[in-house]
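Case study 2.
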Amino acid sequence: MKYGFAAVLLAVAIIGVSLLANPAMLPKPKQTYASTSFAVMLTDPPTVPAGTTVLNLTYSNVLLHITYPNGTIEWLPVNASGTVNLFSLVNMTQTLASVVIPVNSTVDMIQFTIADVKAVVNGATYNVTALSSTLVIKVENGLVSQTLSGVLLDFNPTLVQIQATDANGTLVNYYVLVPSATAVVVNNLSEDELKVGTIVKIGENNHVKLVRVEEEFQKNMTIVSASLSVNGNVTTLLVTLKNEGSLAFRVFGLTLYGDFNATHTLSAQRGGEGEGNGKGKHGASDENVEGVHPRTIPFKVNGSSLVPLIGAGDDEECGGKDLSSLLLQPGNSAALSFKGVIAVQPGKNDNGWPTMVFTPIVGDNYTLRLTGEGFQTYNVTATA
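Prediction:
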């Protein structure tokens, strides 16, 4: 027993000396990270038609894409949903949610769903179709290195008005919401700004951050070439994009801005009933509609195709309301195209409503505006 006890003491001594000589052999304590409240904030300078007084957006399913200090990556669901009048956020920010995350995490993307949009224009309330109802936005400078931080989303949508006439010649309005968004992590927030619902004036420093991010995106994403041609009532639009930056760039769609011819054609059945003007096959009528000329036609991205989004927004060819975007990796190019008739039928009865057809005017100049993370523009002339 005496020798055994001495051997145990000797072993303990040897282990102790070894640990002192090589501290790396000591068990490492579990690493902990300080946590901070992190706000999700929205600002929104919308571009709207004259007479618009309310633009209500209902949002849901907000998620943050986070890389934690230990390397774990996940989409973090944020308990945030509600309705906000975007008119109340001109030069203002509103806190939509607040979550707790570890300091030194990186938030590099934010995703949310546009559940519903309504606009009040000249006293009338309209349902609005979103160009893309699920948005994923890259967050610039996403390292959360301080407490009292948050992500500021600059939504910056354009409300596009599409006009047509019904069977009685009455003007019918449709509206499409075209988003162009950027996001950046902001610091030095007040305690009040972390509270959901708080609306405050946007700080000058944060405004400058958003402008710089948008300018950087404009330099990186380029419309390399575009062509626009018309053959009868068929329009062909070809656009080539290139990402010349170091980060992936997401495109929701584009808008074509300028003057358009507008004609409407009564159905063959209505013409056969004597309600056409006797022109065209089976008595269908084609006539110019003075004063009904849209200025902007939005297109959503569906793979490599461009789909005009006009009318009530429930057409199957519009691709529904799922995530609709193109993610272009650094150095890559993409060719987008549309060839067909840009038309809207303001009614459900195919036999009782005229179809309104829009065509570019040959020789006129048009502006393409890329919509997504930031925006880019390009001028093109319509040819025959």
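The chain has one domain: 35-383.
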